[in-house]
TrEMBL record:
Residues 9-49 form the FecR N-terminal domain. The chain crosses the membrane at residues 129-149. PANTHER family: PERIPLASMIC SIGNAL SENSOR AND SIGMA FACTOR ACTIVATOR FECR-RELATED, PROTEIN FECR. The keyword Membrane applies. The lineage of its organism: Bacteria, Pseudomonadati, Pseudomonadota, Gammaproteobacteria, Lysobacterales. Pfam families: DUF4880, FecR. Keywords: Membrane, Transmembrane, Transmembrane helix. Residues 86-111 are annotated as: Disordered. This is FecR domain-containing protein. The keyword Chaperone does not apply.
Amino acid sequence: MAGSRQIEQAAADWLARRDSGDWSAQAQAQLDAWLAESTAHRVAFLRLSAAWSEGGRLKALAAGTEPGQMPERGAWTAPPFAARAEPAAGADDGDTDAAQPAAAGSPARADALVFAPRPRAPRRYGARLAAAAAVGAVALSMFWGWSLYGKVEQASYRTAIGDLTTVPLADGSRATLSSDSRIEVALSRAQRRVELRQGEAFFDVAKDPGRPFAVEAGGRRVVAVGTHFSVRRDGGDLRVVVTEGTVRLESEPIDGHRQPTTLLPAGSIALAGPNGVLVRSVSVDEAERVVDWRNGYLVFRDTPLAAAAAEFNRYNARKLVIGDAAAGELRVGGNFRWSNAEVFVGLLEQAMPVRAERLHDRIVLHSR
């Protein structure tokens, strides 16, 4: 049995012969016999006949031959674009676009082919502009965030027992740490934040109305713009002493309820604890004496001996211990150097009914 390509070729030959105009009854009989030999012959012939009858297709294949007219043999080898071949000799050089059709059967010249320009895809200027705008917005927001919240200073400072130190901050402020104290500093272009982790610190705040200075400690927040004040932690209690300007004392909400804000002008001594905030107004001089530890002194005014001993213990490794309740209730007053607890105990023994028991790591105070 012939292959499909052979059958297709035979069907094409029969179709060409039939449409050539030289077609006889004998030729038709031979075609009928060939069609009767196989279903494949009939299918191939019908398919080619249908394609042949298609006017547009036939015209294209025939390179302009009108429907119903058979192109000459050999014209099939000339591709349709042969119509754009080099013009014939004698043609007007200035009319090259109006090229003459190639002669039937003549091979097309590759160097004479003229290709139509490829249509350009529309440029997406809108998408590019949108992408550039998005990138610019991201860069601008990153710069804005960096300029406001980028860290200007982030540091930790601490002192040991018996040491005091004053540290300058990047904004021009200064912090003086008392004995056995620790602060965490985080300054940016938008805010100034200090966390008092332990002990006491006195702050000399540089004025900057656009960037409040906040000290956080134990769920409370002391906010100032430019002033002098100290913050001290004693367990869960907080003490704030203001010697210049005004600060705002804020507390965290309790059980979802907002706590009132307390304004503290100069001369205020605020004690904040679990039961609220107690404010005592004194003179600025008296407030200064409360923070005289910066100059090496502890100031007592009718202070229980137990409280005075606790204050000395903040600055000394050798502790003062109250031996009995009666000794602890005795009242003391005066200015004393916190670095010389031994002198303080000697004065107690001379002026008050106190007996001191001196051990290597502590001094026990008994009443007499």
